[in-house]
Amino acid sequence: MDYKKITPPLNEMTARSLRAGDLVMISGIIYTGRDAAHKRLFELLEKGKELPLDLRDQIIYYVGPTPARPGRACGSAGPTTSYRMDKYTPALLDRGLRGMIGKGLRSNEVIEAMERNGAVYFAATGGAGALISSCITEAVPILYEDLGTEAIHQMHVRNFPVTVVIDSLGNNLYEQGPVRYRRDTP
Amino acid sequence: MREIHTDKIRDAVRQLYLDMLCTIGDDITLALRSGLEQEESPIGCMLLRQLLENNEIARNERVGICQDTGMAILFVELGQEIHLTGGSFEDAVNQGVREAYEEGYFRKSVVDDPLFDRINTKDNTPAVIHLRLLPGDKICITAMAKGFGSENMSAMRMLVPADGEEGVLKTILDTVRQAGPNPCPPIIVGVGIGGTMEVAAQLAKYATARPIGDRHADPRYADLEQKALSAINALGIGPGGLGGRVTALDVHIESCPTHIAGLPVAVNICCHASRHGKCEI
Ligand code: SF4
Predict the structure, then answer these.
(1) What is the average per-residue pLDDT within B256-278?
(2) Res A184 pLDDT > 90
(3) Percent of chain A beyond pLDDT 70?
(4) Which of B71, B67, B58, B131 is CA-nearest to residue B97?
(5) Interface predicted TM-score of the whole assembly (ipTM), two decimals
């Protein structure tokens, strides 16, 4: 199978060219964030403050790794379920966040914000934390270190395999895929 | 009367978690391999191959199969002829969990208060302990580590007797359909039928740890397990929810007596990273 190669930052034109079902290898720098970090970023925006890091054209990976064994860059690091971030996501997309990596369904509000801004949602393989860990060459906490595994990390990845699930036109592989393989039960 | 020091329980629990969180069961490996033969979706096949490779890496490099190393759940059968020495049974279990999660570099995912404080206890305790007192002088422990991506997709319904087999099947299918990609398919579906509300839920959880391919002893339930499995795999959800044939690896039903007016059904979804182990002391 053919993979498209992406190196963040991901500009709007490239993001808009990706289609649901495309297989992508990401190499370069991405940022991690999950429930607690999203809540903090969102609360800043609600208070009218600026974000402490520039997310323009960046990709956020929803992940909370296990601690790294000595000699490893990162522990097990598969995606967490994305819908828990839905409440906070449109505000980040409106500030230029270009891509998200996670697993599972997204809300209509998130999909509309993706269409509006030209963003893309990738799925990483749920439960493949050990495999993904071997694509991570460095992971450094850069914000909210008190959150431990939930702190925002800057992550260097090499050939991180993901699939485009929802593209900037709102095409959704979570809808299209099952329709293609559904069978009527006898 | 047989005396057992609680240190033995602590050590057994510790070893169970150190093993299960990095080493997937052979039954799951076989099921993923045979899934690869049945899968029609190219992306689905790619995902199944990734999972097999993932589990190899986890085993060889002693890294967690999944980053969600779960909440510790233990079903303990305690022989009533045993006299425990050395202190609290629950403390020993929790100490075993604590040591394993520290030593194994597993993620600590438990918070103290569910609603208001939500502060991480930092050692993955307390464990959930289901204790039964049985005749004999042995301790039998079935331990699981349950991730919440799939736990959150579980459901419970208090059906009425008239809903019958059809109602049960519908409950199972509705739950799996609604879960879609969220619980990391391919999944293992545990179903508890009967008892009371909490008993059905407990049975459903216990059912998720049964080896793939094992059937309920009663042929009627065994038949329902097969029927539910085919119906789930006809939904098209597929590996990762991206479309395909292999949505579930198996369906396990546990049943028990209930009230004349009731038919409780609980569906506990477990992901392919079904991490569990057994030991006897
Ligand atoms: S549902 Fe299972 S495989 Fe998926 S992230 Fe949670 S524990 Fe891991």
Answers:
(1) 97
(2) no
(3) 99
(4) B71
(5) 0.93
Contact B240 A1 (CB under 8 A): no
Q: Is B185 in the pocket of ligand 1 (CB under 6 A)?
A: no
Backbone angles phi, psi at A81, to 5 degrees: -70, 130
A76 interaction partners in chain B (CB closer than 8 Å)? 58, 63-67, 69, 107
Which positions 138-167 of A are in contact with B (Cβ < 8 Å)?
148-149, 161, 163, 165
User: How many structural domains compose chain B?
Assistant: 2
Indicate the DSSP class of residue A172: B
Domain shared by B15 and B106, yes or no: yes
Average pLDDT over residues A162-171: 97
> Domains along chain A?
4-184 (3.20.130.10)
CA distances from B6 to A131, B77, B86, B103 (A): 37, 15, 5, 20
Report, as an integer, the average pLDDT of B142-163. Answer: 96
Contact A8, A59 (CB under 8 A): yes
Mean pLDDT, residues B22-28 taken together: 97
Task: Return the CATH number at B227.
Answer: 3.30.1330
Residue to substitute in B24, B51, B68, B182 for testing ligand 1 pocket (most ligand atoms within 8 angstroms of CB): B68
Residue B143 Cβ inside 6 Å of ligand 1? The answer reads no
Active-site residue flag, A156: no
Residue B126 and residue B167 share a domain: no
Residue B166 CB partners (closer than 8 Å, separation 6+): none
Task: With respect to residue B35, please indicate whether it lies within any of the assigned structural domains.
Answer: no
